[in-house]
């Protein structure tokens, strides 16, 4: 049973560029949440997707956008990258019918130079 | 919004017990979660409390007092592999979903021989 997978593992971008991160949820899961984790901090909630729509959003600017596909996989897009966007980006999947199970992927380490 | 406070670091000896406290403020509580995160890895689920009281799972126990906005994670019979960051997370109630997670900054537990 495949867990949550994310790609790429690492990424280096230049300030002002755009980036797309990808996530495949655990088999059978239909909800995907994205988090940003700066070094030494806890994950910060970016947004959550269910039924291909953004359902919840944290305190992140519109430069952060996402998408969920019919197969439940998801993308996180960040435009006009800033140095402060350097972080570990975590994807977590869950099942809408479950009250607490949330499984994290290994993350994508984004470095903005 | 929510504030989640937990100590930055704790050190304990192998075989000992450590208690990690977490206090929170929330506008709508819908569960408290503890995650373990080893350096460079994704968070993994440890425990979930939605009602007051103690939940025990092997060497790990978690306690919740909703009236006090307080939880603790108790780690017994510490092992070297327990050296990790422990994240306290509160789920905030939402009308259209189980709600979004807010994480604390994490408590780094260092287990010494």
Q: Give me the number of helical elements of chain A.
A: 0
Global structural class of chain B: mainly beta
Total strand count of chain B, please?
A: 11
H-E string of chain B = EEEEEEEEEEE
The coarse overall form of chain A would be globular
What are the low-pLDDT stretches of chain A, counting only 5+ consecutive residues below 50?
none
Strand content of chain B: over 45%
| Terminus-to-terminus distance of chain A | 37 Å
H and E order of chain A: EEEEEEEEEEE
Give the CA-based shape of chain B: globular
From the structure above, extract its key features.
heterodimer, A: 113 residues, mainly beta, 7-stranded mixed β-sheet, B: mainly beta, 11 strands, globular
Tell me about this structure.
The complex is a heterodimer of chains A (113) and B (113). With 113 residues, chain A is mainly β. In chain A, 0% of the residues lie in helices and 51% in strands. Chain A has strands at 5-7, 10-13, 19-24, 31-37, 44-50, 53-57, 64-68, 74-78, 87-94, 102-104, 108-112. In chain B, strands 2, 4, 5, 9, 10 and 11 form a 6-stranded mixed beta sheet that branches. Chain B is 0% helix and 59% strand. With 113 residues, chain B is mostly beta strands. In chain B, strand 9 and strand 10 form a beta hairpin. Chain B has strands at residues 3-5, 9-13, 18-25, 29-37, 44-49, 53-57, 60-65, 70-75, 84-92, 100-103, 107-112. The interface between A and B is medium-sized, with 27 and 24 residues.
Write a compact overview of the structure shown:
By secondary structure, chain A is mainly β. Chain A is built from no helices and 11 strands.
Write the layout of secondary structure elements.
The complex is a heterodimer of chains A (113) and B (113).
Chain A: E1 5-7, E2 10-13, E3 19-24, E4 31-37, E5 44-50, E6 53-57, E7 64-68, E8 74-78, E9 87-94, E10 102-104, E11 108-112
Chain B: E1 3-5, E2 9-13, E3 18-25, E4 29-37, E5 44-49, E6 53-57, E7 60-65, E8 70-75, E9 84-92, E10 100-103, E11 107-112
Parallel strand pairs in B: 2-11
Antiparallel strand pairs in B: 1-3, 3-8, 4-5, 4-9, 6-7, 7-8, 9-10, 9-11
